[in-house]
Amino acid sequence: MTLSYPGRIFSLLLAATFGGYLLTSAVVILVAAILPLSRADAVITSSLLSFAVYTAVIIWVFAVKDAKRAWTGMLSATVIIGGTGLLLTELLR
Amino acid sequence: MKQATAVNNEPGRFRQAMAWLHTWGGLVASWALFAIFLTGTIGVFDDDITHWMNPERAMVGEFDPQTNTQQQRLDAVTKGEAYLRDIAPQSHLWRIRLPSEVDPAIGLTWENENEQFQQARLHPVSGELLTQKQERETQGGHHFVHMHFEFHAGTAGIWLVGFFTMIMLVALVSGIIIHKRIFKDFFTFRPGKGQRSWLDAHNASSVLSLPFQLMIAYTGLIVFVTVYMPVGVIANYDHPRTFFAEVFNQPEHRPETGIQAEVYPVTELFEKAEALMEKPASFISVEHPGDSSAVAKVFGLFEKEKNTGRLLFLSSGQVILDAVTGELLHIEAPDLFDKSNAFAAQRIMRTLHFANFGGYTVRWIYFILGMAGTIMMATGAILFMVKRRQRSLNEFGAQTPKVYRAIEVLNISAISGLMVACIAFFWVNRLLPLEVADRAGWEIKLFFFIWLGSLLHAALRPASRAWIEQLIGFAVLSLLLPIVNWLTTGQHLFHYFARGDWSNVGFELTILLFGVLGVFTVKILKRKQQKTITEANRVYKPESESA
After folding, report:
1. 20 to 30 A Cα–Cα from B295, which one of B105, B254, B366, B434?
2. Domain extents for chain A?
3. What would the DSSP string read from start to end of B457-490?
4. Has the ipTM of the complex gone over 0.90?
């Protein structure tokens, strides 16, 4: 399946905005779970870092430039990181 | 050209992708970011602007809340309490703000039955409601601050601003990546060279203020971190109030019970809190008055001099009381910071964004760097068009000229149009009759209408004319503003000098300076257009002779 040029750009934009936000959220959950701080402090610290993560993810999406690769890479990373994060949150709480 | 040879290798391709991202991301966001930046930069002086926009109100700094006696403070609370008990016996929230340096009236805020915030101001001595006739109703400098963080559009606006701020972060980072000669370009400016000059101006303004731009974008996102990134709280807490209670080191917010209960005398709560903190208070709020869950929060007076030069503000003191029984629930001692390091980091980022940690020196530095930021956005957007005006890149096939025209029109109204609207806002403040209903709202509506008018004007006129005409409008409105002020209020620059009202002196001199800068810009643009026309004629002549 090949998309037209505007279609590819649109897919990349969606990947960067929404996909990037999902992956960033997953990273926030994981970092909050593993930081050796009190619960509230860990949540604040990981949230404070989140926009740097988001920026890096967006840059990465546009560096890859391939919408399909960007989506697969991002969604699998989101599932793995977010899953581990949620699991650790439950276990360490 | 350099890029064309470099695309084959990996770093070259990466840089090219970043150039694309910077160009298009930057362009799409530049209109909104210019608005966010310009209004934010103006908003640095929001209190001074509010002061100028309220000529009937007493002078800023004339009233020092620290000289208030306890009896005066308690009287003020009693007056506010009586008014609120009368107008909103059942509400989600009451707030009473005591007379302050910025506003010497008693400020009241409450939520009505539709959960909408209502405001009123009472005369500090007589306790009478201050009406529009005595004072012009205006949002003052807050208009710029609200444009800056929410476009006057509530939560949706906060998200929009966040969205564009993220694009700004990405544009900054991709801009750094594509910019190989970052330090050399810092010293490079080649005026009068068309596209090259615009690029130099864009590079210089960006590189010069880069650390500031990164800081202000990032801390801006942090101000609303719990709105933009709620996932950490959601994953770890059943309810956000538990999180906030932990962070603030305070008892949890009490949800409403629906059981009616008489509010404890608010003035007594205030008096009690002052005694517990051993210092004057300046603010009291009552959550859910009339309900058995009612809670009162009393805030100590913020002492500016104690926090000057500090990025981490010390607590001004806070007392939380049960507003039904009057029982003490929590006390936060003044003059220290007893929260965690992570929260301290967040507070510091907030302070960095709000520019209120070092008086006028810091405000002026922020103003200048903010203006550098607006120049960065404006020159970036203009550069995009200048590049394509010389040689179309044909990105949109047959539609390209139409798209370029639309971009040009948006550029004009987003940049010069907004500048006109901002100055016109001050004219509206002086010219709109005092008795107009919802006067403050109309000031803002007219601001938007004028901005919209600039879009219409840009769409109807050739681009080069539209730029010049709007900039002339800006310059004339700026230069005549002090005269309009004199004609409408009888106040003028010399009068402010004589009175020692430096806030208003600074305001009017700054406006005049911008007017003069506007005149110069118009002159430069006109000279350039003249040059382009003569050059075009020179090229055209031999051709016509040969034909």
Report:
1. B105
2. 27-92
3. HHHHS-HHHHHHHHHHHHHHHHHHHHHHHHHHHS
4. yes
